[in-house]
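Data deposition worksheet. Section B asks for the primary sequence of the deposited chain exactly as it was used as input, without tags or linkers unless they were present during the calculation. Section C holds the resulting structure in token form. Section D is free text for depositor observations; keep each observation to a single sentence. Incomplete worksheets are returned to the depositor.
Section A, Depositor: J.P.
Section B:
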Amino acid sequence: MPVVLRHNALLELNVAEYHGAVTFTELKAVADYLAVHRSFLKCDCLSIVFPSAHFDGVPLETLNDLFGRYKGMYEPINFQIIRRSAWICFSPAAQAHVDHWSGKREAREAMSTTLQQFASFEEAGDWLVLSEAETLALQTGAGFDELIRFDEAPNIAQTRAG
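Section C:
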């Protein structure tokens, strides 16, 4: 299960989880899903790259194309406040891709988003302005409903909730 999207309606917070060998097809499928379910684009997001995750089959330059796609999805949205996108990377094998996505972009202008990478759930929770209990829920997944998971085999996407 390489990519799983979760949502907590009460916190208006999305979580994107990355596990195992993540492919460009799966990353593109996430963007395709969000293009159809645009309400999730306005929520803050925490992306968690688990220790097993890697993007070995994803050339860094393809992330630039994907970033352009996200920029196009966010352009028509009118934000009242800047959206926050936090990243935690527990995988040394994925770190270069996370750095490329989060560290070398001006997402504030492109997507009304500020991106920042953290070493722990506690740091990310503080930055996302979550209480201690909400940060614990974030870490355990309590209250976060699975929206969809993306896995190239056997089906690209298997919807759990629509």
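Section D:
The first helix runs from residue 24 to 36.
Strands lie at 3-8, 13-18, 44-49, 83-89, 113-118, 145-150, 157-159.
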